[in-house]
Design brief:
5-stranded antiparallel β-sheet; 14% helix; 10-stranded mixed β-sheet; 6 helices; mainly beta; transport; globular; AP2_Mu_C_sf; MHD; AP5M1; 24 strands
Length: 479
């Protein structure tokens, strides 16, 4: 699994289209020519390649104009993979990603020229190329602009000998530099270029994200998703020291059940391979020096939202609103923060506001276009918080960045919260069952947290931007 070339373009207004980095691998190009024979499409010069790529992705100056071969309705588009026409032949696959002021692109070498182009997931060379590009983008987003391109070129020399990636984690770059500045009596893997020396500890971080869309229409509509990841930072001595971890459930009433599990390539699963089987999950891995994501997953739990709400807002320039929030009885009543925000789209600023609240404190934003209800670290003893308010708006032209869907009664309230030392799925790690192969006993640190994302309650009197018939329903907690 090798790459034929790598390209980094500048997308800023001052230097749009400028080539920041172009790296071609002649040995991979020779292999490609032998494998494809008469079907071989050579790499174009960097400038021509960059211009054609910008046109293909509709990023060039004429992108606003209709181009039939690119913009026709029946065209085949499989972003981030595209093909570029070169001398009546198709250069494929070209993997390209844009983020911020950068466009990064690579051309993986697909060894089988008869590969089915429709099923990209089965083409491992494309997956490797995509991982390399993501690593480059993550590095460019955090690196110093003055030295990042030089460092990136050095990293490609060390981590991609002859165009074959040995490591796509750019977090290991500082260690690779240090490795090549020292002499070692034994060979080290690219992902762990030298042995760690110092205080030994293993830091596990389990972070879960809960997303919910709720409405009190039609008997109570709720779409709920819980997904999370487990990241590891292992400071342990030994080059190939293996760590064994056991995943357990904190909830004695529900065995651990995880869906859509993605496991890091360096991790092996011992015992039952089905994570949703409810048995203990034993994972074994040899950690790199930097922090890495060991596991990503979705969870079928909880069945009901941790915070259930009702939002009612009626009126135009004079508005009355009611918000009721109920914390689920099985959710820990302790938050790092918990806020509810209502943005008044397509309205003028708030002129007057009168409110009545049984918990927390509401306040208007500085521009008076949103209301923030600070609930604090706990709900009341009955786990229910209620806010009623009357607002008057000034008549003012619509702001250009307003949401086109949120007009009149179409609006929502968004809940933002974070909770430490807890997970909704019950996923946890037993520190007593964390072992290291070479017998050392590092300190085990486990951090768990829950955060909300797009946790929205839609106005009962307005429309919702999703099909009602496919949403699941929850039991009403408000009368």
């Amino acid at each position: 699994m090798s790459l034929r070339c790598l390209l980094v373009l500048n997308l800023s207004k001052e230097d749009f289209g400028k080539i920041l980095l172009f790296r071609q691998f002649p040995t991979v190009e020779k292999r490609c020519k032998l494998a494809y024979g008469s079907d071989f499409v050579p790499l174009p010069p960097p400038t021509i390649f960059a211009n054609k790529l910008l046109v293909r992705l509709a990023l060039s100056a004429d992108s606003k104009q209709f181009v039939e071969w690119r913009d026709k309705a029946d065209g085949n588009m499989q972003l981030p993979v595209v093909e570029i026409t070169m001398d009546k032949k198709q250069l494929w696959p070209v993997v390209a990603i844009t983020e911020g002021y950068f466009l990064v692109c690579c051309i993986p070498f697909v060894e089988d020229k008869n590969t089915d182009k429709k099923n990209l997931m089965k083409i491992s060379a494309i997956s490797v190329g995509f991982s390399v590009l993501l690593g480059i983008l993550n590095y460019l987003a955090t690196a110093d602009r003055l030295t990042c391109l030089i460092d990136l070129d050095n990293y490609l020399t060390l981590s991609m000998p002859f165009g074959t990636p040995s490591d796509t984690e750019f977090c290991s770059f500082p260690y690779l530099q240090k490795y090549h500045s020292q002499k070692f009596s034994k060979r080290q893997p690219a992902w762990k270029p030298f042995d760690y020396k110092g205080k030994q500890q293993i830091y596990f971080k389990i972070m879960e994200i809960v997303r919910s869309v709720q409405s009190d229409q039609s008997g109570g509509i709720c779409h709920l998703e819980t997904f999370g990841q487990i990241s590891v930072k292992a400071d342990i001595e030994g080059t190939l020291n293996d760590v064994t971890v056991v995943l357990i459930s904190k909830d004695v009433d529900h065995p651990l059940s995880l869906d859509s599990v993605i496991i890091h390539p360096c991790v092996n699963v011992h015992g039952p391979t089905n994570i949703g089987s409810g048995s203990l999950k034993r994972l074994r891995f040899s950690p790199p020096l930097h922090e890495f994501v060991m596991l990503q997953y979705c969870s079928p739990l909880p069945k009901e939202p941790p915070i259930q709400g009702v939002f009612k807002m009626l009126g135009e320039n004079s508005v009355e609103l009611l918000i009721q929030l109920k914390l689920h009885e099985k959710v820990k009543n302790s938050f790092d923060f918990c806020d509810l925000i209502i943005k008044f789209f397509n309205k003028g600023p708030v002129k007057n506001m009168e409110f009545n609240v049984n918990h927390g404190s509401p306040k208007l934003s500085e521009d008076k276009h949103s209301l923030k209800w600070i609930l604090g670290s706990k709900f009341p003893k009955d786990l229910e918080a209620v806010l009623t308010a009357k607002l008057e708006f000034l008549d003012k032209p619509i702001l250009p960045n307003d949401d086109p869907f949120c007009v009149d009664k179409n609006c929502y309230a968004q809940i933002n919260f974070k909770q430490s030392n807890s997970t909704l799925s019950g996923c946890s790690i037993d520190p007593k069952n964390v072992s290291v192969s070479e017998g050392s006993k590092p300190k085990i640190i486990i951090e768990r947290s829950i955060q909300s994302a797009e946790y929205r309650i839609w106005n009962n009197y307005g429309d919702v931007p999703f099909p009602v018939n496919i949403a699941n329903k929850f039991n009403k907690v408000f009368t």
